[in-house]
Specification:
The complex is a heterodimer of chains A (about 80) and B (about 150).
Chain A: E1 2-7, H1 10-16, E2 20-25, H2 30-41, E3 50-53, E4 56-57, E5 69-73
Parallel strand pairs in A: 1-5
Antiparallel strand pairs in A: 1-2, 3-4, 3-5
Chain B: E1 2-5, H1 11-16, E2 25-32, E3 36-37, E4 40-49, H2 51-68, E5 73-79, E6 81-84, E7 88-96, H3 99-116, E8 119-125, E9 130-132, H4 136-147
Parallel strand pairs in B: 1-5
Antiparallel strand pairs in B: 2-7, 3-4, 4-6, 4-8, 5-7, 8-9
Classes of the chains: A alpha+beta (about 80), B alpha+beta (about 150).
Chain lengths: ~80, ~150
């Protein structure tokens, strides 16, 4: 098991009803972590979502390490 | 310099940072909050960012602009928090020896910022509804989750 810190923004923050949480998990990848959180919080399918690990864009297949900070990024809409 | 601010964007302050004696052109872009979107009347907006990555990605875009175009300086500032109709949501300014490259670089920066920088926009509509722009499917799922 490892501890992963997750920060939520925008629609995911509203759906999760929190801005962050720390989770003890077996999820091997960012994708598996999202699936775990999806059932907990009722997130939609992550269509066109991106993922960041430790404040860098990453890939869904990225292996998670103990202490990683993960952010799921819904489609952006700046400007 | 790429920056995020919760305060009104002071265009003259940022434009002053672009001054350079080698330059004959300053091109800037103001992104304004519009009173409608996709047929709905918009009352106000909220912008939310993921600050650490937004600044990193924004700086990367500005570095790309400096590499691709023969320009002198480039600045981009994006508002976060609650904005009213007519407020400046984003400002891009570019100074360059010649105007052509300044126009091109300015266009490049605003286009890339809109595509890549983790900033989200929530619109509040006249009919009392609200929604995160570009995320229709996510909102629908939330609705189903709570009421189905």
């Amino acid at each position: 098991m490892k501890t992963i810190h997750i920060e939520y923004f925008a629609i995911l923050r509203e759906q999760a009803e929190r801005a962050s949480e720390s989770l003890l998990t077996d999820a091997p990848t960012a994708e598996a972590l999202f699936q775990e959180l999806q059932s907990a919080h009722g997130f939609a399918a992550p269509r066109n979502f991106k993922v960041a690990i430790n404040d860098e864009f990453s890939v869904w297949a990225a292996k998670l390490q103990d202490g990683d900070r993960v952010v799921f990024i819904p489609p952006v809409a700046g400007g | 310099m790429f920056d995020l601010t919760e305060n009104p964007i002071s265009v003259s302050t940022f434009a002053e940072q672009l001054r350079n004696e080698t330059c004959g052109a300053l091109v800037s872009f103001d992104g304004w909050v519009r009173n409608h979107n996709e047929g709905q009347q918009v009352l106000r907006l909220e912008y939310e960012s993921y600050p650490a990555l937004a600044i990193k990605e924004g700086e990367k875009i500005l570095a790309e602009a400096l590499q691709r175009f023969p320009i002198a300086r480039v600045v981009c500032v994006h508002r976060t928090g609650s904005l009213d109709i007519g407020d400046i949501a984003v400002w891009v300014g570019v100074s360059a020896p010649h105007r052509g490259e300044a126009f091109d670089a300015c266009r490049y920066v605003i286009d890339e910022v809109k595509l890549r920088v983790p900033i989200w926009k929530k619109e509040h509509y006249l009919d009392g509804d609200s929604g995160w722009v570009n995320c229709e499917a996510c909102a629908t799922a939330k609705h189903n989750h709570h009421h189905s």
